[in-house]
Amino acid sequence: MLTRERKDHILAILQRDGRVVAKVVSQQLGLSEDTIRRDLRELAAEGRLQRVHGGALPASAAMASLAQREDVSTAGKVAIGKAAARMVRDGQVVMLDGGTTALQVARHLAPELRATVVTHSPTVTAELGRHPGIEVELIGGRLFKHSRVSVGAAAMEAIARIRADIFFMGVTGIHPELGLTTGDADEAAIKRALSRQSAETLVLASREKLGAASPFRVLPLEEVDGLVVEADLPREMLQSYLNLGLTVVHD
């Protein structure tokens, strides 16, 4: 079997089963595990999958550039944004992550709402600058351009001084075994810090992120309170998360 044929076979298994086990594929094809692992490494370098111990999981579409992500699951992100925005109450302090889904939360906060939003996203800040009743605390630091958010020591120090009622977290991968993941170590650390400073953490979970993985772990799912999802997701996509005791909120 040619290399391209092996890789196509691996990707077909990944699409069908949601994961690839290197040992199983090597036995199916009568090839060494080293050959399959090399194929997995090359596919991971191409951004086609995310390698994990013993095999691979789907790579998150949310690892693409911000401009590309704006066109992914647009209607779903709007629905998630509306559902999350309805959870915010007057007088609360809300931590809001960066990214395209978090921007939809900012856009759909009720016009009459009176609350404080803490964010490390200049994009979210600009959106909330038009809201008449929202006080905005912008966390500064080094700009991570992929997500247009602040990271680094200055951001961590600022976050440590704040206590919030709720944190709406964005990630690029949500997997029942691997937990919450993202594509940058510094960004993952900031998300952990924001979650630690919040009484409740809810993950903005558009469908392309469910079952996917990225290189850097943020938190295990047991350390967050729930997922905000699109209303039309099949129950089988959510069952493993419900089994973990997570609350699932939708529009």
Automatic annotation (TrEMBL):
The record's Pfam families line, in alphabetical order, gives: DeoRC, HTH_DeoR
Q: Superkingdom, according to UniProt? A: Bacteria
Instruction: Name the PROSITE patterns on file.
Output: HTH_DEOR_1, HTH_DEOR_2
Gene3D superfamilies for the chain: 3.40.50.1360, Winged helix-like DNA-binding domain superfamily/Winged helix DNA-binding domain
InterPro entries to which the protein is assigned, alphabetical: Carb_Metab_HTH_regulators, DeoR-like_C, DeoR_HTH, NagB/RpiA_transferase-like, Tscrpt_reg_HTH_DeoR_CS, WH-like_DNA-bd_sf, WH_DNA-bd_sf
Entry GO MF terms: DNA binding
Keywords of this entry: DNA-binding, Repressor, Transcription, Transcription regulation
| Residues annotated as domain HTH deoR-type | 3-58
Alphabetized PANTHER family for the sequence:
GLYCEROL-3-PHOSPHATE REGULON REPRESSOR, HTH-TYPE TRANSCRIPTIONAL REGULATOR SRLR-RELATED
The entry's protein name is DeoR/GlpR family DNA-binding transcription regulator
Give the species: Teichococcus vastitatis
